[in-house]
Amino acid sequence: MVDVMIIGLGGTGGAALEILARMPDVGDIVVCDAKDQAKKIATAVSGANHLGFYPRVTFERVDLMDTERAAAVIAAAAPVVILNCTALMPWYGRKLLDLPAELEAAMKSSGVAAWLPTHVCIAQKVMLAVRQSRVSTRVINLSFPDAVNAILHRQDLGPVMGAGNADLLIPNLQREVARQVKGHERDVQVLLVAHHALTGLQSTDTPESMPYHIQVLHKGKDVTDDVSIGDLLYRASQDRLPGTLMDLLVASSLVKNAMAILRDSHLLTFAPGPGGLIGGYSVKISRDSVEVNLPDGITMQEAIALNERAQVRDGISEILKGGTVVLTEKAWRGMKEATGYDMKAFHPEDACRRAKELIELFHGLRSKYGMKGYEV
Question: Do 21 and 145 sit in the same domain of this protein?
Answer without folding.
Answer: yes
